[in-house]
Amino acid sequence: MSALIEAARAPDYPAEIVGVLSNRAAAPGLAIAAADGIATASLAQSKFPSRDMFEDVMTQILESWNVDIVCLAGFMRILGDDFVNRWAGRMINIHPSLLPLYKGLHTHERALADGAKVHGCTVHFVTPGLDEGAPILQAEVPVLPGDTPETLATRILVEEHRIYPQALRLLASGAI
């Protein structure tokens, strides 16, 4: 969140962060956004009788902010086909692996268990299939001797913060 907000401060950046929506009220991104004067909202999916109702309210919030592009980060919920298709080509996500490798959770642990020599992150379009959307940008990080999931995650996070604003720039400027 911080990397996108910081990038959007540049006068030549083609996107403005108009709101931050989280499914967790205690998400650090909400406080970061609020401190920067950006609109925030949180919705607990558990408070809704169905995923469709949850996603309908999310859509209402996003539309009230006049959102053009949705950037997911740490939103650990599977989104329904209707919601995903509504934002098709305009919703992106950051994932901590070099997709198509290691879709889903525990990517660092799985890369280490496989003896991977490189790992990394991917910004990709969100599609109905889990982590299956077309990649926009990727960054590789070498797996070092003695790496743990935590040390690998720390190095990958640096790359996530570098490539996510670049990917948003490409999408918002019409370059992709």
Q: What structural class do the secondary elements suggest? A: alpha/beta
Annotation, overall tally of beta strands? 6
Shape estimate: globular
Q: Provide the β-strand percentage band.
A: 15-25%
Going across the biggest sheet, name each strand in turn. Answer: 3-4-5-6
As an assembly, this protein is: single chain
Q: Count the helices. How many? A: 6
Describe this structure in words.
The protein has 176 residues and is an alpha/beta fold. The chain contains 6 helices and 6 strands; from the N terminus they run αβαβαβαβαββα. The chain has helices at residues 2-8, 28-35, 51-64, 81-86, 107-113, 149-172; strands at residues 19-22, 39-42, 70-72, 91-95, 118-125, 135-142. A 4-stranded mixed beta sheet has the order 3-4-5-6, covered by helices on one side. The chain has a two-stranded parallel sheet with strand order 1-2. α1 (2-8) runs parallel beside α6. The radius of gyration is 16 Å and the shape is globular. The model has no long low-confidence stretch (mean pLDDT 96).
Task: Note the main attributes of this structure.
176 residues; alpha/beta; four-stranded mixed beta sheet; two-stranded parallel ribbon; 6 strands; 18% strand; globular
Topology:
Elements: H1 2-8, E1 19-22, H2 28-35, E2 39-42, H3 51-64, E3 70-72, H4 81-86, E4 91-95, H5 107-113, E5 118-125, E6 135-142, H6 149-172
Parallel strand pairs: 1-2, 3-4
Antiparallel strand pairs: 4-5, 5-6
Provide a brief overview of the structure.
By secondary structure, the chain is an alpha/beta fold. It has 6 helices and 6 strands; from the N terminus they run H-E-H-E-H-E-H-E-H-E-E-H. The protein has a 4-stranded mixed beta sheet with strand order 3-4-5-6, with helices on one face.
